[in-house]
Amino acid sequence: MSGEYKICKRCIMDTTDPEIEFDGQGRCNHCGTYDERVQNELHYDQAGREKLEQMINKIKKEGKDKENDCIIGLSGGTDSSMVAYRVKELGLRQCVTRCVRQILCAELYRDSRAGLH
């Protein structure tokens, strides 16, 4: 960390992140990226629900004769716990794995895509 210590006025990320940048209002680049992605990728309207339903049906169809439909990496934090809960709520058969190291999650994902699990 070099220079003045700063904290984002919105998300409380700080300059311990070497890639963080701030705008004139004291908001970080991560908040800007998040806002942009939410605008472009999250759709809470009827069309979004229909697209989600299509994806779920495709996953279920492809996993028909398999033990699980998907792998969920669970860190124990709020985000991954909510994902595991929501996936179960949507009726997908999930394999939940505790991710101790990021590399393990990447290896599990790679292997699952190759049909090794």
General description of the model:
Strands 1-2 form a two-stranded parallel sheet. The protein is mainly α and 117 residues long. The chain has 4 helices and 2 strands. Helix content is 46%, strand content 9%. The longest helix has 17 residues, at 46-62. The protein has helices spanning 29-41, 46-62, 78-89, 102-113; strands at residues 70-74, 94-98. The chain has a domain at 64-113.
Secondary-structure element string: HHEHEH
The beta-strand count equals: 2
Mean pLDDT: 85
Work out the radius of gyration: 18 Å
User: What is the oligomeric state here?
Assistant: single chain
Helical fraction: 40-55%
Query: Largest sheet, order of strands side by side?
Result: 1-2
Query: Helix segment count?
Result: 4
Largest sheet: 2 strands, parallel
Helix vs. strand class: mainly alpha
Distance between the termini: 41 Å
Strand content: 5-15%
Which outline best applies? Answer: elongated
Weakly predicted, low-confidence segments: none
Task: Give the gist of this structure.
By secondary structure, the chain is mainly alpha-helical. It has helices spanning about 30-40, 45-60, 80-90, 100-115, and strands at about 70-75, 95-100.
Q: Which helices and strands occur, and which strands form pairs?
A:
Layout: H1 29-41, H2 46-62, E1 70-74, H3 78-89, E2 94-98, H4 102-113
Parallel strand pairs: 1-2
Keywords:
4 helices, two-stranded parallel sheet, elongated, mainly alpha, 117 residues, 46% helix, 2 strands
